[in-house]
């Protein structure tokens, strides 16, 4: 008999939100507490609250109105839509920060001339995609996977690929991304990729590890800002970079 997958923490937070909605007697059209208020009330971080809200969006329970707030669109039911195979967008980013930072550090010690050439071509592809505004993110994914391949460790390649595949099939990630309309961030992330590339080319493991960690932290921070339903000027980090690095 297969052991059921453990409940993810953001799913626990979503369940607590459903209970809170029922306890307060909220009706469709009513505005929920702000994310900040929810985080304080449940004593959890903003990243967990954001993942829980995205999950409730996928379920069709709430609607996020940018710069206005979170609104109930139907009453919660006892049996929620199952998204057990999904992964919270910010949970995913934290996992990537831990894994891919370490991968970049190792890759700097094992990278070959052929790897460097492939990474350079991928950066050029990413730059052209941004300049043409074609919405093609494949070079972004390829850049990260090429770094994993440069470690010459099949297990690490498999783990990094799995995280990117989870992102590709995630309904929660798609829901989050549908609320993002600012494309200027892609140019900033390309600059991050260039820094990572230079560290790899210099075979500087410490710099490569740090550059990758800083890059994913900035991605997380940007997504937190661009998708904030309560306060578009919110400038807090989605999760503590210190926490992630302590896990390395």
Summary?
With 248 residues, the chain is mostly helical. The protein contains 11 helices and 2 strands.
Give a written overview of the molecule.
The protein is mainly alpha-helical and 248 residues long. The chain has eleven helices and two strands; from the N terminus they run αααββαααααααα. A two-stranded antiparallel sheet has the order 1-2. Helix 2 packs across helix 3.
Layout of secondary structure:
Blueprint: H1 9-23, H2 35-42, H3 46-59, E1 62-65, E2 69-72, H4 89-110, H5 113-132, H6 138-150, H7 154-169, H8 171-177, H9 185-201, H10 205-226, H11 241-246
Antiparallel strand pairs: 1-2
Helix pairs in contact: 1-3, 2-3, 3-8, 4-6, 4-7, 4-9, 4-10, 5-6, 5-9, 6-7, 9-10
| SSE order | HHHEEHHHHHHHH
The Rg value, from CA coordinates, equals 19 Å
Q: Biggest sheet, strands in spatial order?
A: 1-2
Structural class: mainly alpha
